[in-house]
Write a structure and sequence with these properties.
It is built from 6 helices and 9 strands, in the order ββαααβαβββαβαββ. It is of the alpha/beta class and 170 residues long. A 5-stranded parallel beta sheet has the order 4-3-7-8-9, with helices on both faces. Strands 1-2 form a two-stranded antiparallel ribbon. Strands 5-6 form a two-stranded antiparallel sheet. The chain binds adenosine monophosphate (AMP).
């Protein structure tokens, strides 16, 4: 498999000064690498030991839906404000650049007890912590986090009491 890192472009000072933005879209343009990555992510313990996947808007959806098909696990979504209808749980969080809110549909999570969280990149961990807290507050368990990239020096994983499986540490 081609090196994952060679498909990731870094844009300095995007979306704001001081941020080195990792553009992961090159991965999904190389179907061989994308397929191998999805097979690897789908067979890891975090996904295997979950009942359902919850992926985070927007780039998390790309990887989450492919993993969902490969691992035969239902996928739920955590979305930004104003996108989801129905009864919602929502919370705010800080991320590497700025702050945001996420919401989950209350009825959608009801049938499942144990979730794997999927996103493209782990930076400070604020985004994932927000999702984890909403699930925990609803009485749910988390098997772990599966991400494509982890920015190790931001120490995001130290915020969690569940395993983190990353495919590229930068
Ligand atoms: P954080 O909450 O700080 O862990 O940020 C993680 C979320 O923000 C993920 O959904 C990423 O897509 C996005 N993100 C944060 N930092 C970066 C970065 N340097 N490059 C690309 N995406 C990032």
């Amino acid at each position: 498999m081609k090196n994952l890192e060679s498909l990731i472009k870094t844009y300095n000072d995007f979306p704001q000064k001081g941020i080195a933005f990792k553009d992961i879209l090159g991965i999904i343009q190389d179907t061989e690498v994308f397929r191998e990555l999805i097979l690897k992510m789908s067979s890891n313990k975090v996904i295997k030991s979950s009942e359902a996947i919850i992926s985070i808007e927007a780039r998390g959806f790309i990887f989450g839906s492919a993993i969902s098909l490969q691992a035969s696990k239902p996928m739920l979504v955590a979305r930004k404000p104003g996108k989801l209808p129905g009864n919602l749980i929502s919370d705010s969080y800080e991320l590497e650049y700025g702050s945001n809110s996420l919401a989950i549909q209350t009825d959608a999570i009801k049938p499942y007890k144990n979730f794997a969280i999927v996103d493209d990149l782990l930076a400070t961990g604020g985004t994932v912590k927000c999702v984890a807290e909403m699930l925990n507050d609803s009485g749910k368990e988390i098997s772990g986090l599966s991400v494509v990239i982890e920015l190790r020096e931001l120490c995001g994983r130290d915020k969690f009491n569940f395993p983190v499986e990353s495919n590229l540490v930068l």
